[in-house]
């Protein structure tokens, strides 16, 4: 019963088979292989963005930080939610790779920021001239760090505010596929058509071994990224093994099938938690992540049964939590049986 993170899940067998196929013989290195050529064409087609620039890195932190470094000068600031991963869980990588840019934090509710909160934060940073940082990109996480999903309309409204101020928009899409399946829209509708300029397209949490795509929908905004990637030690020599993973995911919609399975397991778990009477959902689980309070006795039973999940004491909403809280994450391999085993242990 492992609900610690989608990072703890296995790699999909079709991805492993793709790696074995890519392991035959020799291929050009550093991204000059035909697999990367095919992947670039596939992603441009998937996102209806024939001019998009596509690059691969190994981690979400690398993708986020190198994109922000490309979009934000060292004297700038990027706007993000107060609980954003780039703020809380990347060990200052965004600040490091930008060469010193700040992160301007925006109060969030259930992981999401509102247009009003964004405007208020931008106003603070925007009127100090050279005495303050230069306003820079807006970074939005989709699926958010609280398991919620922005609607296309919400994304569009936030991106419009940024664009009206001349600021680019980055999307941390570490769980992009989960959000897309949740909304049922197209990749283009949830990105560039909504105003997103650069995307971290998550592969690892989706079910790959370790690869994230970086997509700049306007190649003019990608200037310098490849140098930053190389200097950041993120350009793989045997790059074909990154490309093979991602191409496998974007073949026959495997990426959507994996996200759909994770979201379905999450929905089953969320319903069972609510019906149990032993747990309360803290936020609406729109994709594959649940945040819930539970009875201390239920928590003890789950621990005794060996269930794996993060204890969650949210420092921003801690006052609301009077019982043990948990973050529960489902991945492509989470089975109904595993969910039901968890619910049985919860109920005792
Ligand atoms: C929302 C979000 N963004 C980015 C990342 C960074 O990914 P990585 O751990 O591969 O650096 C994570 C990690 O799970 C994440 O949850
Ligand atoms: C660092 C931790 O938050 C990781 N990003 C996860 O979601 O499991």
Folded structure, characterized:
- With 348 residues, the chain is α/β, with parallel strands linked by helices.
- The protein folds into two domains: 12-249, 3-Layer(aba) Sandwich (Aspartate Aminotransferase, domain 2), CATH 3.40.640.10; 254-347, Aspartate Aminotransferase, domain 1, CATH 3.90.1150.10.
- 40% of the residues lie in helices and 16% in strands.
- It has helices spanning 13-22, 34-46, 60-71, 85-88, 93-98, 115-126, 152-164, 176-183, 225-231, 240-249, 254-276, 296-304, 336-347, and strands at 53-57, 76-81, 102-106, 134-141, 169-173, 198-202, 212-216, 279-281, 289-294, 310-311, 325-329.
- The strands form two sheets. The chain has a seven-stranded mixed β-sheet, sandwiched between helices. Strands 8-9-11-10 form a four-stranded antiparallel β-sheet.
- Helix 12 (296-304) packs across helix 13 (336-347).
- Bound molecules: pyridoxal-5'-phosphate and threonine.
- Residues 5, 7, 85, 89 line the site of threonine.
- It is an enzyme of class 4 (lyase).
- Keywords: Lyase, Pyridoxal phosphate.
- Its cofactor is pyridoxal 5'-phosphate.
- GO terms for molecular function: L-allo-threonine aldolase activity.
- Catalyzes the cleavage of L-allo-threonine and L-threonine to glycine and acetaldehyde.
